[in-house]
Amino acid sequence: MKITAKQGRGTKIHIHIDGEYLLTVDEDFWFSSGYVSGDEIDDGDLVAFKEAAGSRLAFNSAMFSLDMRDHSEREIRQKLLRKYDENSVDTAVEKLLDLGIVNDRRYAELLTRELFERKRYGKNRVRSELYRKGIASDIVNEVLEEYENENEPDNVQTIVDIIEKKYYNKLIDEKSRQKVVASLVRLGYSFSDIRQAMREFSSDEFYEEI
Fold first, then answer.
1. 93 to each of 33, 65, 103, 104, how far by Cα in Å?
2. Residue 182 reports pLDDT greater than 70
3. Rounded distance between C-alpha atoms, residue 181 and residue 191, angstroms
4. What is the dihedral angle through the alpha carbons of 51, 57, 62, 63, rounded to the nearest 10 degrees?
């Protein structure tokens, strides 16, 4: 079989086998492959070429996604599996991990800070979000503990601030207050902290019962 390469747009190289289109790679991959256009290639070498090309394409796709925002290992793996085969994805992800481009510990630290400080989530919601991103439980526990030790968050005061900014006008009756409590629980705050914060706004028995 004869392998030929045709220049495409930009750095794209279109690979053909015996005149039929096979796949597209980038210039760096093609010129480092050891082949020149017109070389003969057997079945075994063609399989290896396709596998290497698939891994390169998956890696390039991952880099594009990571330029947009950071991802956990599970996130980037799931995204790549929508377009590439499992072997190509495994090889690409392994390279990303080896290079430190994907790092779940770093990702968890950055996300934890964002969720606590920008989204004003409570610890329970932060933990849930980290798990949802595929972060291992040991990393989650360590990152949360380190954040709390360094920042000593005041959950009650945070809840008070949230109520004053978002829910104060909704504390009009028991049904409305129950909805506020439910919203705060979804944000990840404990009932005890919510109860204490709500006492800042009223001494009703309602706050003793939630």
1. 21, 13, 11, 12
2. yes
3. 8
4. 130
Specify the residue for token string 């779940």. Answer: 104
Segment 103-145, tens digit of pLDDT: 999 999 999 999 999 999 999 999 999 999 999 999 999 999 9
For residue 77, which of 40, 51, 104, 38 has the smallest C-alpha distance? 104
Provide CB contacts within 8 A for 127, sequence distance 6+. Answer: 140, 144, 188
Distance CA 55, CA 51 (A): 6
Q: What is the rounded CA–CA span in Å between residue 191 and residue 197? A: 10
Average pLDDT, rounded, for the chain: 91
Residue 113: CB partners within 8 Å, gap ≥ 6?
147
Contact (CB, 8 A) for 55 and 92: yes
* H-helix segments, 69-154: 73-81, 86-98, 104-117, 123-132, 137-151
Contact status, residue 148 vs residue 155, Cβ threshold 8 Å: no
Q: Do residues 188 and 128 touch, judged by C-beta distance below 8 A?
A: yes
